[in-house]
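At this stage, I wrote out one protein's amino acid sequence and its backbone structure tokens, and that material follows here:
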Amino acid sequence: MNFNLTCKKLFAEQKYEEERAFIEKKMKSPFYFLVRMSARQHYIRVCMALDDLPTASRYIASLRHGGGKGWKYMTAYYYILIKLDEGDLKTARAEFEEFRRDCADAEIYKTQIEILTAIFSRLLTARDNTPLPLSAVESSYPVVSRILGRHYEAQAADSAVEWN
């Protein structure tokens, strides 16, 4: 089976450790150069699903170092989530604004922009209680739940202060 199809299949089946091992095995192959870029993209995705953000960050930096807006946008979603998790709202927001502005019409980024828009609307708008998109609720990435969870905890703490 094709490398990309195998990775997509394992990810869809939530076999993240198996996918990670598969990619790492390919990375050790002498023919790795043939799948190097797609392997890095899959590796970032699986690291995010396994909540291994430091490794994901290293691979994001590696792809971005390669240059070009294309690599920046292919990693923007993950980069923004990591920055939000680190509490760097300023960097995350600036990256999101550029990503949304330049990629709003690109179908491949539609779901990512939808999730990030929902997250930012909650973080930046007081009392936003519109339902989250299903894509955010069912996200494979624990960081999404963690970011939203911290927001709801802060909102609950603010409500307690208002009511007392």
About this structure: The CA atoms of residues 23 and 29 lie 10 Å apart.
